[in-house]
């Protein structure tokens, strides 16, 4: 334990001195220290630039579009015939397509996702949950193009056997498959919300002789409702923005209809069709792309805001 | 025949140029690279993509030929702009407006016919009543003035079921050919199902007993197991569309149309690989026309094109 | 199951009649069990669909996978067609996405966690990032087409596609890196400051190394998202037939999902294309599986316990 | 600070607590625990417990942290089995029936046996709905009957006057002590036979503690009560019998007076006099 | 348990601790704190502190939890300013320079003043890299020089023999006590003038505590040491001077002997005799 006797006396290495000597390199450090925050700020601004870029491109071209097609015609028109000699740009067929496909998707995703969440959070043992949850997450990681392939080559033929009037391209099949794709999202977000309900609350109900089902229905779900609803809204937002499944499996008919056995086009599929056809810059149809994209953007943006508002506003305090 | 091009091919040294062409090609075969960009007609796409592939395999492995299929009209949109595509396939002739646009942009365009196509009407394989229809009956199905919504509106003995007419959408030359040359610019019937992808149409017809659609012969021959063609009676008895009947002056002639590819001449002058590919297309198109569902061109036209291309050297 | 109720001698009148409670109890328990069964079936529904999907894709595609398919060039002829071009295109795309998102994502995360004052700017950027995460991918495609392909005139090349994808997956990397950085305990950076280290030295030498596993996990997950995305690249414009292999950032390219797309919609032209699409899906799924497993391994193996 | 005041009262009350003396000898046994053993995985948490809980008495369970008090009381309504790794052997007879029997329905048991927890755990619902929760799941829908049950239970839990004008407000608006009494009211609403309480006052301030203690004294006229407490003075103040747990065993179980004035085991004495724990 | 054994030693050592007596009176002042006030937002955490720290002495800071000990010691190397809401007034002179001056570079200060924390906080790097960290950030890259510094520092922290064969292993493989000595070695590697220690042994077992205490006694031959401790016996054992903090104020500051044997303030006495805290 004779520490220091040799330490400073006649040292081969005098650290103090060396540190003093190296002080010149401190200038570089100081420079880095000054520059780094600014550099990082610039990098962090890129995410903002991205948003600005999105808004700017969408807005400016949309503006140009509305110079050519009155905004009222766009939002109230039931006929979308962009390529015809006498083009018409009513967005309603796309809106109905988008809404109907999303509604179908949520008809699948909400009940199944919620019930899955309930099973995982309230009924499954730890072990079961730990095996099932990652498997469900695989479902969420499968690329949408694969779901599109699946919808078109597998689900549609099966549905056609069941539903005679169903067209080869229809909105029903991609809607269902989209719902399947969204199940893990709804399930996992709802499960998070339900698991964060304190155990004490469940025990309080169980101690009154409630069954698991009653605990779930009357205590857990009401307490977790904001998170659950937020998961639904995010699911809807996801369905609205989903592209490949509908593009592949619903064809490109711009029907203004509510018949789910028919082919319909969503906003996203329209964008793919028009850009896939690579509309020449400057044509009205080219600008229509941005108007549709803008509508889509606003839709999903509002949905996301709504989800965040709900989960903040209605969070139970316990 | 080479309508539209502002630069008339020099027809004078037709024979003499034959050798030099091949010399050039042989020389060029050594070291060509770069890219050739082809877009346009979906009808022509199967033929053009096979040509492109064969060209890259057998002639110029270092040249990259991309073939897209936006449709004739959309393709022209990308072709007739500065720095646009090198070729645009078309299932109709270039329009006057499009030529004007080319001129305005200072783009010199050369037309090549590449093959002959028969506009084919297809129905479900189990549709046993509409296998033979007259030209007028067909038109009445698709025309807004036809007054036909059910099969029984055509002939009373046909089923009392709604007809589901379909076709390619307005991106496509096929649509425009139909609209301009067959409907004579009359409106299409309400509720006609227009699609971007031909494959979607094939599917729709294959799955619907009451469907009837029209598109290029090639998409029919490749799917004969799923759909059947309507034999059309042009007044002299029903004619089955086939490579023979859609050939020049065949019995299917009223519904036959040439398909084209248009070359940006400046690109061909600038980029040797574009010129070389043009030459390849012209000289080999007949070899692949049959297998992709087109009728071949007369040799005379091919010679004409060759001499034009020689003039660009 | 009859609990002796007479023992209770409460003076107050009773509302809860134990006999009725008993009778209802069975009904309630049956309901509970039925519901449990239903919930279980629901849970299995997703998994069964997953199994069907995978089985179906494999049974259709596995026969088409061989060396020629994996290494061959694209072709119109299904017997000759290969996906090497798409594989290379995917790799080239990654070569752009990986460094760009790492740089931007980690940089943004460092800024937010270490430099930005908790205030308006901070929460603005933060809100912005979570909004970006919810923007449909196709809108990013339009952004890429407008900015990179047209305005910057790059054309539909690897660089344009890669930058578009980078912006698309940026929020994933930012959020993952933020969490990783936040998870580095304060006392580590205190130790570093205590030695006279500057802020950047502390970040570089202590925080980033400790956060690296978490950052890498996020980066890999973002890559696997980028690999599976189709729509933005279709918007950017990828030719239906592209035989040459991409060799650089400025080359035109195709990627696995886009190839799947074209083969799926062209299946009615040439029936075998559907099988090619299935085979390509298998390859894509395997690539994703490997990537995600790597992420999990990194997370489990290198995550420090402090 | 609060604890100190509470402690001062103890000495006074211990003496005044004479209820034990007047209890008739023929009291009925509500719970009869026989050779109960319980493991959390391999952790032997309860060792050969034998214990009788009598009707209309307050039975206190005391002991140092981790000795198994909560585990035992949770076994009495089988809540302990919510922990999946729990293994149990032995018998617990509730009014003559072995509740550890597989065929015994826990929901049945729990409608007879109410439980109050350490931390008040009202549901995030209105005060009314909290109390009506139990009757409702047992099928009582009639609004008038419910109203009456709610009022009676809240009165029984000595909180009626404080909340009667805000029955539709969220229970989380109440103070901790009020919440705990609400939880007791929630318990009373299903008219239980036994009430189990796991440190019901440990999260409360001295004033609320006092209120709850008074309430317990009141409740035992109608209910049998088992209460776990860390606070020996509390056990002395309110219970008729006391069991002292140590390391999962019952060291001593007797009338509260005896335990506190004349314990027979050295360890009990040490614990009571604060020598450890 | 461990604490008990440690306590027993105290009485012996307090008496044997005679170093204070032999300190020459003309000791240099290292830190001179004048009228220091510190706020966390509105929370006044340090109130008008005046304190001198002398060279080559151990200065202990004691006081109940939350009294501002950590805050004060962290002010000495300005680490406290990592908390953004902190506001400071007053002066702290380190060897004649006011370190609270804006123009004073904290990095400079911190290379002169090492710090050891309550919880051992080695970096998740190899043992070698942990010790070499400081020299490296100050620009020393030469492998041979680094080797020498690492060995010397580890020897200085009395841990060399335990780790010399596993220098490239991760520091998290060490025991808590070893980790703490490693952190001290890491400090020594930059040859500081002062070492600040914030409860350096509170996370350690009695044996490791003893080792660290011995080490501190050794270190004060070369370094000035300021140590925060909860453990009064520890302060008595190892320090030359002791400051007693209460509610952000210095109640008393004097030679350790005086503080422990003859405190002038009633509150100090109460605290030391365990009457509160
Ligand atoms: N869920 C559990 N899993 C594993 N072990 C547990 C669990 N709950 C309790 N234990 C263990 O069982 C033993 C008894 O715990 P219990 O909670 O019954 O003690 P207690 O007497 O209530 O203590 P306290 O006074 O702190 O509440 C302890 O050793 C504890 O660690
Ligand atoms: N980061 C902070 N933000 C706000 N207040 C703080 C912060 N750190 C400490 N405080 C407050 O400052 C006061 C002094 O805290 P400090 O940590 O210095 O006490 P301490 O004497 O070290 O206590 P302990 O012995 O528990 O470590 C306390 O009231 C504490 O709540
Ligand atoms: Mg307990
Ligand atoms: Mg402290
Ligand atoms: O695709 P088209 O040939 O019809 O233009």
TrEMBL record, chain A:
Does this UniProt record's set of keywords contain Transmembrane helix? Answer: yes
Query: In which compartments does the protein localize?
Result: Cell membrane; Membrane
**What UniProt keywords are attached to this protein's entry?**
Cell membrane, Membrane, Phosphate transport, Transmembrane, Transmembrane helix, Transport
Query: Does the entry feature the keyword Transmembrane, yes or no?
Result: yes
What is the membrane topology here?
Multi-pass membrane protein
Q: What is this protein called?
A: Phosphate transport system permease protein
Residue intervals passing through the bilayer:
39-59, 99-124, 136-159, 171-189, 219-240, 285-307
Q: What is its main location?
A: membrane
| Leader peptide range in chain numbering | none
Out of the domains of life, which is the source?
Answer: Bacteria
Record-level GO BP terms: phosphate ion transport
Question: Ranges for the ABC transmembrane type-1 domain?
Answer: 95-307
Q: Which family does it belong to?
A: Belongs to the binding-protein-dependent transport system permease family. CysTW subfamily.
From TrEMBL, chain C:
Residue span(s) of domain ABC transmembrane type-1: 87-294
Q: Where are the transmembrane segments?
A: 34-58, 83-112, 124-148, 154-176, 230-249, 276-298
**Matches recorded under CDD domains:** TM_PBP2
Please give the family membership noted in the entry. Answer: Belongs to the binding-protein-dependent transport system permease family. CysTW subfamily.
Organism, scientific name? Alkalihalophilus pseudofirmus (strain ATCC BAA-2126 / JCM 17055 / OF4) (Bacillus pseudofirmus)
Membrane topology (UniProt): Multi-pass membrane protein
Q: Where does the record say this protein resides?
A: Cell membrane
- In the record, what lineage is assigned to the organism producing the protein? Bacteria, Bacillati, Bacillota, Bacilli, Bacillales
Question: What is a single cellular component term in the Gene Ontology annotation?
Answer: plasma membrane
- Which gene name does the record give? pstA
Q: Which UniProt keywords apply?
A: Cell membrane, Membrane, Transmembrane, Transmembrane helix, Transport
Q: Which domain of life is it from?
A: Bacteria
Q: Can you say what this protein is called?
A: Phosphate transport system permease protein PstA
A GO term (biological process) for this protein? Answer: phosphate ion transmembrane transport
Q: Which Pfam families match?
A: BPD_transp_1
One MF term in GO for this entry? phosphate transmembrane transporter activity
> Matching Gene3D superfamilies, A to Z?
MetI-like
TrEMBL record, chains D, E:
- Can you give the residue ranges of the ABC transporter domain? 31-272
Q: What is its main location?
A: membrane
Query: Which BP terms in the Gene Ontology apply to this protein?
Result: phosphate ion transmembrane transport
Q: Which residues form a coiled coil?
A: none
Cite the entry's keywords alphabetically: ATP-binding, Cell membrane, Membrane, Nucleotide-binding, Phosphate transport, Translocase, Transport
**Membrane association type:** Peripheral membrane protein
According to its UniProt entry, the function of this protein is described as: Part of the ABC transporter complex PstSACB involved in phosphate import. Responsible for energy coupling to the transport system.
Matches recorded under NCBIfam families: 3a0107s01c2 (TIGR00972)
Protein name in the entry:
Phosphate ABC transporter ATP-binding protein
